[in-house]
UniProtKB/TrEMBL annotation, chain B:
GO terms for biological process: transmembrane transport. It is found in: Cell membrane. This is Carbohydrate ABC transporter permease. The chain crosses the membrane at residues 32-57, 97-121, 128-145, 151-171, 220-242, 262-286. Residues 98-287 form the ABC transmembrane type-1 domain. Belongs to the binding-protein-dependent transport system permease family. It holds the Pfam family BPD_transp_1. Keywords: Cell membrane, Membrane, Transmembrane, Transmembrane helix, Transport.
């Protein structure tokens, strides 16, 4: 024990902070989801009542769930494939580092700071960039209220976050592509690989499995956790809850209404959703190995 | 005479040949179109950032020009002084937000690198009992959106009695599973013999960590520097939740206040956005090579 003392001491800071800010919160979140708790009175055990209300009575949660799924189904795979595709194209170009910077830049900038730009681009009056272009070319005759009209809001949020999501996934893919040994491609040419797509399917993709999995997990988590860009663009709550997401709902109950038991139930649902999808993608990417 | 002309012309023709081989050979219409397309796309992805930069330097008459211009004609620093004045009229000067952001970011970056690297070193190199389990738990927490645990984390922070202090903005961000994972993947590549040799020379784990391991995995912790810088600098959720007093707020929160203000603040808002965005981009350009080296090791081996 004594000879290991220094090792345990070095591991201790991480372990203590990790347990304090990751493990304890996850476990207590699960426990709180079975209670009624408003921060003033002690938690009261109410069993599955929170979950029943959540799925059977809370219409706004169902809207949030629908929006989040719509959002995740569109932006998740789209940003995943686009970032892979552009990583592949850029990897074959000259000055690939400069191109990589330009693609990575949106995701390192603060969504709140850039909301200034997006509110200008999607501004509701004639000065807004998109309205101006559409009016000048005669496609519309009155400005469209992009950020307050329930018909457009979710699409605007999707578009902006797609633009911002070419981030970590793109970088991982680019590095993964650079990591594939060149002699594998030569061997492939000898073995009769005819075109780039065959090469990609038979050599590149199998070699990049760890990076592909990593990117998939990141994309799933990011697309289900969309919140701050939606709030910065459309406000909280958005008109008719048209851009309301699960995390926005969670935030509403936790930090505005202080119904923490109910909010915990929302967070457990989100937690199960991303965890299941994460496991599924781990299964998909590892089963091809054997 | 012949020898001299040989000496002059041979290098020139060689240079011309190399230039041709490197830059001109293999250029086709398709390739030119591809480059044109990609440059257009790059302009699209970078446009809002260029627009913020250009707007931040626009004088008042250009801000309200109709039709609006993309690029600034007569650059001015007036928006930056406006930003200072606009935020001075409220309770706290703009510089206070700036200080809060810089202070918490530097503290998080430094301690996160140290804490996560030490943990990664022990998990990677020593098969102590329970290490496998700990690492499996760390990996599975990678999959949780951080918002899931925001309520209980709030209780932890409040029970530690550190609400409304810098501790609340720093402590929860130090032990990041993603950082530990990234650094550990690199440390796995350090040959055991290197550490064995150091042990024979009488070094203990502490000295090995600082003298051998940290220099070896420099690209990995440089990447952690960038990621935790970006995550902390841009974060507006945790100051919003853990602090209530205006003196503790950070730049992104202050920006929300400025951009929600009147239309007259457009210039000041763009200046604030510029101040918020510029440091991340500069840091990324400086460290891009290190990041690219690291990312290829970060895939999850399942």
């Amino acid at each position: 024990m004594n000879e290991h003392k220094i090792k345990y001491l070095m591991l201790a800071p991480f372990l203590i902070l990790f347990v304090m800010f990751y493990i304890v919160p996850v476990l207590s979140s699960i426990a709180l989801s079975f209670t009624y708790y408003n921060m003033l009175q002690p938690p009261r055990w109410i069993g599955l009542a929170n979950y029943r209300v959540l799925f059977l009575e809370d219409d706004i949660f169902l809207i949030a769930l629908k929006n989040t799924f719509a959002f995740a189904i569109v932006t998740g795979p789209l940003s995943y494939f686009l970032s892979f595709f552009f990583a592949w194209v850029i990897n074959n170009l000259r000055f690939s580092n400069a191109f990589a910077l330009a693609f990575y830049a949106p995701s390192i900038t603060s969504s709140v700071a850039l909301a200034v730009v997006w509110t200008y681009i999607f501004s509701a009056d004639r000065y807004g960039l998109i309205n101006k272009v559409l009016i000048d070319y005669g496609m519309i005759d009155r400005p469209i209220i992009w950020l307050a009209n329930p018909n457009y809001m979710l699409y605007v949020v999707m578009f902006v976050s797609l633009w911002m999501s070419m981030g970590a996934g793109f970088l991982v893919f680019l590095a993964g592509l650079r990591n594939v040994p060149a002699d594998l491609y030569e061997a492939g040419d000898i073995d009769g690989i005819r075109n780039k797509f065959q090469q990609m399917w038979l050599i590149t993709l199998p070699m990049m499995k760890p990076q592909l999995l990593f990117g998939a997990v990141m994309a799933i988590v990011a697309s289900f956790a969309v919140f701050d860009i939606a709030v910065a663009l459309t406000g909280m709550p958005s008109a008719n809850y048209a851009a309301h997401t699960i995390v926005a709902h969670l935030y509403d109950y936790a930090f505005i209404r202080f119904e923490l038991g109910y909010a915990s139930a929302i967070s457990v649902v989100l937690f199960l959703l991303t965890f299941t999808l994460g496991r599924i993608s781990m299964r998909i990417f590892s089963s091809k190995d054997e | 005479m012949h020898a001299i002309s040989e000496q002059i012309f041979k290098p020139i023709s060689r240079a011309a040949y190399l230039f041709h081989r490197r830059w001109i050979k293999g250029i086709t219409i398709g390739k030119i179109l591809l480059y044109v397309f990609m440059i257009g796309l790059v302009f699209f992805t970078a446009a809002p950032i260029i627009f913020v930069t250009s707007t931040a330097f626009k004088p008042l008459d250009e801000l309200f020009l109709y039709p609006p211009r993309f690029f600034v004609m007569k650059p001015t620093l007036k928006n930056f002084s406006d930003l200072l004045i606009a935020t001075d009229s409220s309770l706290v000067p703009f510089t206070r937000y700036l200080f809060n952001s810089v202070f918490t970011t530097v503290a998080v970056v430094f301690f996160s690198v140290v804490v996560c690297s030490m943990g990664a070193f022990i998990i990677s190199k020593y098969k102590l009992p329970g290490m496998g389990f700990i690492f499996a738990v760390v990996i599975s927490t990678l999959m949780f959106p951080p918002q899931v645990t925001s309520i209980p984390t709030y209780f932890v922070v409040s029970n530690l009695a550190i609400l409304n202090t810098y501790w609340a903005l720093i402590l929860p961000k130090l032990a990041v599973p993603y950082n530990l994972f990234l650094v550990k993947q690199f440390m796995d590549q350090i040959p055991d013999q290197t550490l064995e040799a150091a042990r024979v020379d009488g070094a203990n784990e502490w000295t090995m960590f600082w003298k051998i391991v940290m220099p070896f995995v420099k690209p990995a912790w440089m990447t952690v520097v960038i990621f935790s810088f970006i995550a902390t600098w841009n974060d507006f959720a945790s100051p919003l939740i853990y602090t209530t007093s205006e003196t503790m707020k950070t730049l992104p929160l202050a920006m929300l206040g400025v951009s929600n203000g009147t239309v007259g603040r457009m210039g000041a808002a763009a200046a604030g956005a510029f101040v918020t965005v510029a440091p991340s981009i500069i840091l990324f350009i400086l460290m891009q090579r290190q990041v690219m080296d690291t990312m290829s090791h970060s895939g999850i081996k399942s």
